C-alpha cells in the first residue's frame, strides 16, 4: 500500500471514528481523560526511556539548545500534560450545550447547540507533549484526530500514541479516534493536506516554514499562527519595580517560545529611570539589547537596532528596545511591526490601561502581567491545541470550545414561511 | 490604472476604513443603519427605475424565471431589506462585548472581548438586496466591506451603493467603509481574491460554480455554502395535516432558494395515509414527484427516482420522495446524500424529535416547522450575510456576531509565569 492510500485509509477510519465520538457521552470521555493521565504517570519510565532516545539523537545532530529543550519530556512537562488532561476532564462537556435559545414572533423556538468539528488534523514539530494535549482536547470535544509530529520526536510520539491507544481501547472508544502517522516520510504530510473530504480542519504547530507549507498546500481550512513578535509597553505611570520583573519574566523565563517578549517599548518620561537598571538585569541574564538612539543614550553597551529588528522573532536571548513619545506611538509601532499575538501594557493608569485593551487588536492584550501567559493552560482553557493569530473561527489560544462549532436548532408547532 | 492596481487601491482604502470603523461608537452605527433604511424608502422610485433596467435586460436575455425573480426589488423585498436594517440597528452592538471573564488561581483576570473581523469581501450573483443586507451587517459589526455583485444586477447595485455612500457621508463615516466594485469585468474578481493582505474573509453567495471558483482561487479564508439538499422526514407519529402544510410550504413557497425542500422521507407506517393526499396537493401546485418503488406504489403518476435524484438540488418544482423503514434509515439517508444545510422532522413524539435534533449534523435542524426558516432574518439574527455549510467559524446563517471574533484580555497585578 502506497503512502497516499495509507493516508486515505487513515482518513476514512478517522471519519468513521468521528461519527462514533460525536455520540460519546460525557462520563466516558471524562474516564478516558483521567485514565490517560494516570497511565502516563504509571508509564513514566517507559516514556523517559523513549524520550531519551530523541534527546540523544537531537544532541548528536547538534540541534540548537532551544530545540533540544522543546523535545524534553521533563517531570515538569509530564506534570503539565497530566494536569492539563485532568483539567480538560473536569471542564464541562461542550458537546450538546445550548449556547442560546430565543422565541420568534411566530412562536418558533430557535437555539444553538454545540457539536464537534469532526476530524481534526495536527501537524507539529518538536514538542512531543502536543501529542497528548491535542488528543485530549480533541476527544473531549467529540472529535477524532490525526497527529503528525516531527521526525526528531518520533520515539516519544510513538510511545505516547501507544499509551493513548491503550487508554482508548480500555475505555471502549474506537482506537481510530486518535491516530498518529508512524512514518517520518514528508510525503505523508502532503497526502494528509489533500484529504479535504476526511479532515475538517488542519492545525499546524511549529516554525514559520512548516506553517506556511501547510497553509499553502492544505485543501481544508487551516487554523494557524505564523509568529509571535510580542511587545511590552512600559507606560509613564508604570510601577517600575513591577515592570522590571514582568519584562524580565517575559524575556528570559523561556525565550524560545512564541509568547516571549521580543520588543520593549518605553515611555520617554520614565526611560532614564527605568532603562539603566532594566538593562543591568537583562545583562545579568545574558540578554543582548538592540535599541533605538534614545535607548543607546541611556544604555551605552546596547547594539543599534536596524529596521529588521522591529519585526524580528528572535526566539532567543535578544531584545529590541525603543523609547516612545506616547502610548499612541507605542500602539502605532505595534500595529505596524507586531504579529497580533500578545501585547502588554504596564501602567497604574486605568484610562490608558482600558484604552490599550480596546485599541490593540492582538489575540491577547494584557495589563500588568507577563506576555508568557498567552497559553491555553495558563489562561484556564485546559491544555491548548495551538494559538491562532488569524481572526476566523478562533483568535488566540484554542481550547476545547474552539474544537467545536454550533448548529442551529428550532422547535415549532407547524410554522410556515409566509 | 489597470484593474489589478484598482483593486489593490480599493483594498488599501478598505483596510484604512476598517481601522476607523473598529473604533466607531454604537450610536453612530445605529444612526447610519436607520438613516439608510429611511433613505431607501425615500428613494423607492429611483431604485425601482434602476431595478427595472436590470429586469428588462434579464428578460431580454431570456434568463429563467427563477433567476429573474431573484433580481426583483419588489415592495416585499424592499420592506424586508429596510426591516432587516432596522432590526440590525436595534440589535445590541457586538463590538467591545465581554463574552466571558474568569479569575485564575494566580489572580489574573482573563476574559474575551468581541472585535470586528476587519475587511469583509462579498462576491454575489443576482439578488441586489444582498448589497444592502451585507453592508448593514458589516458596518454594525465594525467592519469595512467590499462588494462585488453580478453583472445582471449592476444598475440596481450601483444605485443601492450610491444610497449607502450618501448615508455614510451624512453619518461621518469613511465612504470606503462600503465599496462596490463598479466594473462587470470578471478579472476584478480574480484580483480581489488575491488581496489576502487587505481582505480578512471572503464570502461568496450564489450558484455552486461561483462558490467553487471563489473557494479555489481565494488566498484568504472563505465562508461558503455549496448547496442545499434539504430533507423533511415525516415520522410515523406526525400530525398528518400539519405535515402536509409544512411540506407544501417547504417545497413551493419559493422553490428557487437553498432552503427549499428537495427530498421528502416518509415513514412506511403512515405512507399510505399521507402520500396520496400529499401528492394531490403537490400536483395542485405543479410539483413533479420522483419516487422510490414504495412511493410509486402509492402514487402511480410518480416518476421513478434515479440515484442522482437523491443528491439533486432542483431549485425548481421537483421533489424526490422516499419511503423509509425507520427514523434511523432517514438519518442514514440524510448523512449520505444531504448537504448539511437544513433538515426537519415532523413528529409528535418527543423522544424521536430530540434524537433527530441531536443526531442530524446540519446547520439547522427543525422539529415541526418548514425548512424555509433557515435564514438569518427568519431566525432572528437580523439580515444575514450568507449561510455557511462548513463548520469552521460559522455554521448556518451568519449574522452580525459571525462578522466578529473575540480576542483575549487579561488584567494582572504583576503576575509572572513560573
UniProtKB/TrEMBL annotation, chains A, B:
Q: Which UniProt keywords apply?
A: Amino-acid biosynthesis, Coiled coil, Cytoplasm, NADP, Oxidoreductase, Proline biosynthesis
Ranges of residues in domain Aldehyde dehydrogenase:
8-283
**What domain of life does the UniProt record list for this protein's source?**
Bacteria
Its annotated pathway reads: Amino-acid biosynthesis; L-proline biosynthesis; L-glutamate 5-semialdehyde from L-glutamate: step 2/2
Transmembrane ranges, per UniProt, are none
Q: Which GO terms describe its biological process?
A: L-proline biosynthetic process
Concerning CDD domains, the annotation shows: ALDH_F18-19_ProA-GPR (cd07079)
Catalytic EC class? oxidoreductase
Q: Which Gene3D superfamilies match?
A: Aldehyde Dehydrogenase, Chain A, domain 1, Aldehyde Dehydrogenase, Chain A, domain 2
Q: Name one GO molecular function term.
A: glutamate-5-semialdehyde dehydrogenase activity
Localization (cell): Cytoplasm
Q: Quote the EC number.
A: 1.2.1.41
- Asked whether the keyword Cytoplasm is assigned, the reply is yes
Coiled-coil spans in chain:
23-53
Outline what the protein does. Catalyzes the NADPH-dependent reduction of L-glutamate 5-phosphate into L-glutamate 5-semialdehyde and phosphate. The product spontaneously undergoes cyclization to form 1-pyrroline-5-carboxylate.
Q: Which family does it belong to?
A: Belongs to the gamma-glutamyl phosphate reductase family.
Q: Check the record and name the NCBIfam families matching this protein.
A: PRK00197.1, proA
Recorded hits in HAMAP family, A to Z, give: ProA
Under what name is this protein listed?
A: Gamma-glutamyl phosphate reductase
From the broadest rank down, the organism's phylogenetic lineage runs: Bacteria, Pseudomonadati, Thermodesulfobacteriota, Syntrophobacteria, Syntrophobacterales
Amino acid at each position: 500500500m502506497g503512502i497516499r492510500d495509507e493516508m486515505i485509509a487513515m482518513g476514512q477510519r478517522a471519519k468513521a471514528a468521528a461519527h462514533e465520538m460525536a455520540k460519546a457521552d460525557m462520563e466516558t470521555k471524562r474516564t478516558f481523560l483521567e485514565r490517560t493521565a494516570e497511565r502516563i504517570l504509571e508509564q513514566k519510565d517507559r516514556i523517559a526511556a523513549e524520550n531519551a532516545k530523541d534527546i540523544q539523537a537531537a544532541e548528536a545532530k547538534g540541534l540548537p539548545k532551544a530545540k533540544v529543550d522543546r523535545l524534553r519530556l521533563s517531570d515538569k512537562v509530564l506534570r503539565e500534560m497530566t494536569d492539563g488532561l485532568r483539567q480538560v476532564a473536569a471542564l464541562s462537556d461542550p458537546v450538546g450545550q445550548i449556547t442560546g435559545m430565543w422565541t420568534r414572533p411566530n412562536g418558533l423556538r430557535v437555539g444553538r447547540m454545540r457539536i464537534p468539528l469532526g476530524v481534526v488534523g495536527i501537524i507539529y514539530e518538536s514538542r512531543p507533549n502536543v501529542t497528548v494535549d491535542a488528543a485530549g482536547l480533541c476527544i473531549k470535544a467529540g472529535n477524532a484526530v490525526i497527529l503528525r509530529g516531527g521526525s526528531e520526536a518520533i520515539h516519544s510520539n510513538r510511545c505516547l500514541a501507544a499509551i493513548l491507544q491503550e487508554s482508548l481501547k480500555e475505555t471502549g472508544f474506537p482506537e481510530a479516534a486518535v491516530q498518529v502517522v508512524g512514518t517520518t516520510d514528508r510525503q505523508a504530510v502532503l497526502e494528509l493536506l489533500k484529504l479535504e473530504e476526511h479532515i475538517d480542519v488542519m492545525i499546524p504547530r511549529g516554525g514559520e516554514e512548516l506553517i506556511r507549507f501547510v497553509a499553502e498546500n492544505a485543501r481544508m481550512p487551516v487554523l494557524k499562527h505564523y509568529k509571535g513578535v510580542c511587545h511590552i509597553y512600559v507606560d509613564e505611570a508604570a510601577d517600575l519595580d513591577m515592570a522590571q520583573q514582568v519584562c524580565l519574566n517575559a524575556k528570559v523565563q523561556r525565550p524560545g517560545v512564541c509568547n516571549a517578549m521580543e520588543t520593549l517599548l518605553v515611555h520617554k518620561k520614565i526611560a532614564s529611570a527605568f532603562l539603566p537598571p532594566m538593562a543591568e538585569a537583562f545583562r545579568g541574564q545574558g540578554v543582548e539589547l538592540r535599541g533605538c538612539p534614545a535607548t543607546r543614550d541611556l544604555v551605552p553597551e546596547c547594539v543599534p537596532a536596524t529596521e529588521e529588528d522591529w519585526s524580528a522573532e528572535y526566539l532567543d536571548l535578544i531584545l529590541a528596545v525603543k523609547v516612545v513619545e506616547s502610548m499612541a506611538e507605542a500602539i502605532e509601532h505595534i500595529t505596524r511591526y507586531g504579529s497580533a499575538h500578545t501585547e502588554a501594557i504596564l501602567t497604574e493608569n486605568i484610562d490608558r490601561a482600558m484604552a490599550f485593551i480596546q485599541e490593540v487588536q492582538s489575540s491577547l492584550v494584557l495589563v500588568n502581567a507577563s506576555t508568557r501567559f498567552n497559553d491555553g493552560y495558563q489562561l484556564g482553557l485546559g491544555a491548548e491545541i495551538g494559538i491562532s493569530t488569524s481572526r476566523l473561527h478562533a483568535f488566540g489560544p484554542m481550547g476545547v470550545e474552539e474544537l467545536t462549532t454550533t448548529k442551529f436548532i428550532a422547535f415549532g408547532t407547524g410554522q410556515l414561511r409566509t
